[in-house]
Amino acid sequence: VPRAASKVDALMFRALFPAATEALHGACGVLRAAAQQATASEQLSRLLDIVLALGNILNRDKSPAGPAHAAAAAAADRPAYKLGSLTTLAEMKADAKSSSSSATKGSSGGATLLHYLAKTVEAKSPELLTFAASLDTLRDAVVGPSLAHLESTLGDLRTGLGKLETECEACGDESSGGGGDDEAAFAAALASFRVAAADELSHVTQLAAETSSAAARLLTHFGPAPPGTTPDAVLRTLQTFTAAFSKATTDNARAKQKKAAAAERAVAAAATLTSVKE
Fold it and tell me: Does the predicted TM-score (pTM) go above 0.90?
């Protein structure tokens, strides 16, 4: 059989192509939706403004030259990257002696700046507590294929289709040169798939381009990102923050319930003591 390996590769490509393009459709849709939700979420935008303000207060408090110097430095650094401090909020312990946002990086356990942030949001902007609902595709995007993986898969499909077309053309040339009916039959068997695959690949390429555009907008939406930051990294940062914020909100609610229960026990104990004395 002439070019037996090439023929096997072509048949394998035809067999695997539908599943590969279906996976690309799904992954592109999820990534594009996550990027669009992150850039369109008003709740997330307002919450990040609060985070940025909290960071500015911290920088001002830490500035050795006082608030004026810190304000000037902050102005010089604008526009700030709004996601820059998200990963440290859960690591910075809130000052237990003050309701201010001063903090030190502490060990695990205890209230962190993220708990302070959640408490502040609950008190002043409770409508922002549900911001995660506006990012409901975020988790799927983070656990799914990365943008780089999608582009790599798309490249593999282009290469595979190119090899299949080359084999089909070689079969046609050999058949017209008197090489036998088998070559013509093989090319004919793949003819309709060849056309359909080219159309589908063009469609998936367009979807990937739209996804890349949405990812590019995401990368610049929150301010100038550090060099080397990728859209996938932005999505991971947002997902980590979303999960951590949810946990901090739950922790605060439990602490509030625990404090209320302790107060009730104290009142009951005081009432019992008064009754005994009487």
Answer: no
Side chain identity at residue 248, one-letter code? A
Q: What is the DSSP letter of 19?
A: H
DSSP string, 165-186: HHHHHHHHHHHHTT--HHHHHH
> In this predicted model, which residue has the larger pLDDT, 180 or 177?
180
**Burial grade of 10 (CB within 10 A; 0-12, 13-18, 19 or more):** buried
Give the closest residue to 186 by CA, choosing from 198, 173, 196, 177: 173
Report all structural domains of the chain as residue ranges with CATH numbers, in order of start. 4-257 (1.20.58.2220)
Scanning the chain, the segments in alpha helix (DSSP H) are: 4-40, 42-62, 67-77, 86-89, 113-124, 138-143, 147-176, 181-221, 231-277
Residue 179's pLDDT is 59
Average pLDDT score over residue span 4-22:
96
Backbone phi, psi, residue 104, to 5° = -135, 150
CA dist list (Å): 148 to 228, 232, 233:
14, 9, 12
Contact 5, 124 (CB under 8 A): no
Distance CA 162, CA 95 (A): 63
Backbone angles phi, psi at 77, to 5 degrees: -85, -10
- Per-residue pLDDT tens digits for 97-151: 434 444 444 445 678 999 999 999 999 999 999 999 999 999 999 999 999 999 9
Please say whether the beta carbons of 125 and 41 come within 8 A: no
